[in-house]
Amino acid sequence: xxxxxxxxxxxxxxxxxxxxxxxxxxxxxxxxxxxxxxxxxxxxxxxxxxxxxxxxxxxxxxxxxxxxxxxxxxxxxxxxxxxxxxxx
Length: 88
What we know:
Layout (H helix, E strand, L loop, with lengths): L2 H13 L3 H16 L15 H38 L1
Helix pairs in contact: 1-2, 2-3
């Protein structure tokens, strides 16, 4: 895995609202990090250290996963309400 490219792709997917891609990329990067893979360089210089960049990358992954879950939940509720209205 190239964590730098994965992080860039994750941020692009979030920006473009490609939620399924964003979730997949976030889960892949987070898994990489939790298995001991080296982190991408995130905010600030590489001299801040591995722990800094790992913490920031892990936070970004978890934030993306949470945001996608929220969006999917809202979409499901909206579709459920629309189906109920259509059945009235």
